[in-house]
Design goal:
The protein is an all-alpha fold. The chain has helices spanning 9-20, 25-44, 51-75, 83-91, 93-115, 120-150.
Length: 151
């Protein structure tokens, strides 16, 4: 028998997605654009420019975007938002971290499949390791912040 305080898997997934929307997505877009631009500038210094270089720079931009936005979501400091949702995000950082990581995986995979001639599994691998980094950093930051609040 399920207690009324326990949330179902669907409810937890919905809470994780809603919590991820609490992130600072506009500043995250700025950080991603700057990081992607710097990456593109550094890659073009070599003189080799093509869709592969552009895809690599876009991957950097996407990773920074989801990293900053997801980290802000688990820290839950956005004013004017539902306190209960912020509290849930702080209490479940790994579930919230899965949302930007999954979004990164999907967008990176799609972008690489469109822009490059890279095979599906190569694109999947590139997106997967970036998603693991995002999930790890966001989840770890959220866990450390939660443990510091409890202490």
């Amino acid at each position: 028998m399920r207690r009324s305080t326990d949330a179902s898997r669907t409810e937890k997934r919905q809470l994780a997605v809603a919590s991820a929307t609490l992130g600072p997505w506009r500043p995250a877009a700025a950080v991603g654009a700057i990081g992607g631009g710097v990456s593109l500038a550094l890659a073009s210094v070599t003189g080799h420019f093509g869709l592969g270089v552009l895809a690599g720079s876009l991957s950097v931009a996407l990773m920074l975007f989801f990293l900053v936005g997801g980290t802000g979501a688990v820290l839950g400091r956005k004013a004017g938002t539902d306190r209960g949702l912020r509290r849930w995000a702080r209490a479940h950082p790994w579930q919230v971290a899965a949302v930007p990581a999954g979004a990164l995986l999907v967008t990176d995979l799609a972008m690489r499949q469109i822009l490059t001639s890279e095979g599906f599994f190569g694109s999947l691998w590139d997106g997967l390791w970036r998603a693991v980094i995002v999930a790890g950093v966001v989840g770890l930051v959220g866990s450390v912040a939660a443990s510091r609040r409890d202490a």
